[in-house]
Amino acid sequence: MEIKDRIREFIVANCLFGDTSTELNDDTALLDTGIIDSTGVIELVLFISEEFGLEIPAEDMLPNNFNSINRLSDYVQQRILVTAQE
Amino acid sequence: MCGVAGAINLTRPQGTPFPDLHAMLSMLTHRGPEEAGFYADGVVGLAHARLSIVGVNNGLQPIPNEDGTIWAICNGEFFNYVELRDALRMRGHHFKTASDTEVLVHLYEEMGWEAVRELNGQFAFALWDSRRGRLVLGRDRIGVRPLFYTLFNGQLFFASEIKSLLTCGIPRRIDSHALAQVFTIWSPKAGRTILDAVSEVLPGHLLFANVGSPDLTTQQYWRLTFPAVSEIERRSTDDYVEEIRATLADATRIRLRADVPVGAYLSGGLDSTLISSIAQSQLPHQLHTFSVAFHDQEYDERTFQYQVARELGTLHHVIECDPDSLRVALPDVLWHTEVPLLRLTPVPMYLLSQLVHKHGLKVMLSGEGADEFFGGYDIFKEAMVRRFWARNPTSRVRPQLLGRIYGHISDLQTISPEFLQRFFGQGLSETQLPYYSHMLRWQNTGRTTRFFSPHLAQSLAHYSVIDDIAAGLPADLMDWEPMARAQYLEITTFLSTYLLGSQGDRVGMAHSVECRHPFLDHRVVSLSNSIPAAMKLRGLNGEKYVLRHAAQGIAPTNIIARQKQPYRAPIRSVFSGRPLPEYAQDLLSEQRLHATGIFSPEAVKLLLAKVQNSPALSEVDQMAFVGVLSTQMISDYFVENWDVHAASRRRELHMTDVGAQVA
């Protein structure tokens, strides 16, 4: 499964509880629409760490990295590269 | 304190039988376990279950006037009955009892319905005026005591609790709008209940039922109001301090009036400490104080409670709430609240009143109301900071103040300021909305409606709780200070409905314990409403500024300096990481969820998995879980399996018939 799909699946199950009536495309703003709340951010960080085996440094905890499925996916891909190079 | 119930033939012929008044009262015996009294003629029936506090030996109700043309029953107290009785005696009225309820009967003879304006108290009464063929139902100004009613087949039924009305065979259906209200503002809006057939008399209102007329009329006799910005009187801090001290001392003094000992609830915060301090200084004997402690240290305040008790020299009692005791008590609590909950905060208060009852006390003072009227809540600070930030929306520094307000919410401490800005920045510039202060909270809580079934969601598609509330706001609200607007919303949508109901009267009376609230004395209310907002909240650490000053020299110094810790109860430790209690497994099974039809079984299944296993559970997730579980239980109790539960909960009455039983 693509990174995007894995992230979407997690959000639909854990933040939307299977609700498919809420619009959720790859660019939907997750924070501004309230799909992700303050605890949701922490859930996402835990999910990404476990699912992709990544460490997320505190300085990366920015709304810009979290505000859509596309952004999250880009961020995860970039972290995978960085981690591989280290 | 007591339970009241009754019925009247409005458009049915005189002599049409009432529902069984004994059966109605048998649902209220926890409110008044000591005596039962009845009055019935062909038109009206009144029933009263008594908990003796004032006029212990001769206060049996219903109480008539001299010639038996007026009869009254009351739940609650008129604290100024001594002064009123003296004045009425001077005017030639004869009193047969020492009960405060008798004052109402004679005062009504003198003044008609306007008599209610003379009463200083917390009450819900029914008064039958046979000369005019009129029944008057009345409720205190803020809504401390409950009073429900329903019109059914040409008769009006009323009672202190909904379960009493259900013995009359009225329709039992959940009101979908009320459910949406619960899942947005934590309770049905004032006047509504979770059942569509049942209403509640509004605080500060009278309701008139006239024989022969199918229509009920209402009269608002008191209004919660604040001065327009241009009309605010500005006095010195010392001036306010002096008046607050005097008013609060008198409000406490008249609330110590009882023929039985009065104790006090003590949270360890400023408000209850101040009330306990004032009470102890006025009493010739040692005050009994009671408090809730939590096994879960994040919520526990016992260090401060013991310290206050030691300094004041009270006899202190503590109930420690652990996760198991909260799990076990929840079903009983919901039987009493008669409305779904989104939080467990009423449960510890239920266990606390049980402890009070074990110690043989029936009356408790509380500090309830100080946060609303003197500016103690975080939501007032949040609104202040957002307004400040909205004047310079690009500021990076201003939103950081928000993290400081919610120091007790750990998630907000671990995320970055940039996120904080995102979460609190929603609707930032909409400062002209009358509900600006509460918009974020309501929107967040409203996310719990995501679990509604498609069918229910569909039926609510054109209903907005927030618009509904906005439509009922006073016309002059926008002339008040922003803080006064926030106070008004907090008082009318949360204090009167949730705190005084589910977390107050119901869980206290579950164990025959009456709470008295000096801060809700209407003289204190009117004084505090006249004080400028800047005197109540001064900067982020300046909550209850003028009240703190008033407490100097009365309450222990370090309690006065202490930052407010909101009263909260754990949810996670009660339900996470282990199997759900049996009642929850049953009520939340796919089969039961389908049968009730309120929630989507698929969504609830995902929620349950998260509650039990997820390392991170948001505030909204926790509210949703408690909301779904408690709604299922309320539906089970009062809609689906009412007959079974009613049969097992009904209690015997101690009978004493009063008046003519004609019908």
- What is the second-level CATH architecture of the domain at 229-370 and 492-561 in chain B? 3-Layer(aba) Sandwich
Count helical runs of chain B: 29
Q: Please tell me how large the radius of gyration of chain A is.
A: 12 Å
- Uncertain residue ranges of chain A: none
Instruction: Please count the beta strands of chain A (DSSP E, at least 2 residues each).
Output: 0
- Helix % of chain A is 55-70%
Strand composition percent of chain B: 15-25%
- How is the quaternary structure best described? heterodimer
| Classification by helices and strands of chain A | mainly alpha
For the record, give the distance between the C-alpha atoms at the N and C termini of chain A, rounded to a whole number: 25 Å
What is the CATH topology assignment of the domain at 229-370 and 492-561 in chain B? Rossmann fold
* Cα-atom radius of gyration of chain B: 24 Å
Strand order in the largest sheet of chain B: 10-8-9-1-3-2-18
Structure description:
- The complex is a heterodimer of chains A (86) and B (663).
- Chain A has 4 helices and no strands.
- Chain A has helices spanning 3-14, 38-52, 63-66, 69-85.
- The longest helix of chain A has 17 residues, at 69-85.
- Chain B has 663 residues and is of the alpha/beta class.
- Chain B is globular, with a radius of gyration of 24 Å.
- Chains A and B meet through helix 2 of A and helix 14, helix 15, helix 27 and helix 28 of B.
Compact description:
The complex is a heterodimer of chains A (86) and B (663). Chain A has 86 residues and is mainly alpha-helical.
